[in-house]
Amino acid sequence: xxxxxxxxxxxxxxxxxxxxxxxxxxxxxxxxxxxxxxxxxxxxxxxxxxxxxxxxxxxxxxxxxxxxxxxxxxxxxxxxxxxxxxxxxxxxxxxxxxxxxxxxxxxxxxxxxxxxxxxxxxxxxxxxxxxxxxxxxxxxxxxxxxxxxxxxxxxxxxxxxxxxxxxxxxxxxx
Length: 174
Known about the structure:
Helix content is 16%, strand content 40%.
């Protein structure tokens, strides 16, 4: 009788453990990284640019590569920047490019610096581009941009317009 009870207990234990849900394999979903665009114009700067840089334009594409926790909160982030520029005077020297906080018509502090250094890019014929990859972004800043991109703008700075030569609000592209 003891033998039968032991076998029955063992069988019941195996049945229960075989039916339990395993939590050792986390469920993961892969989503495209958030991408933003900004169609740059000197008219968007505050105040609007009216000097030799006034004919410039450009497009910035910013991809945020984020890591999220199980609750969906950003825990780490980097940004990739691809910027094309045209219409600047020949031999324009770029002095910086950044994401700032601020709605359209307002100015704000730099939140994400592309690390472009003064003179690193010279637009010999007035056109050119910037490509910066894996720029570290504070996770809270990345989350805020994802949640409300229109509250942030990207701009490029030149020797002639050190406060900003062309600017646009971020727009979610995906």
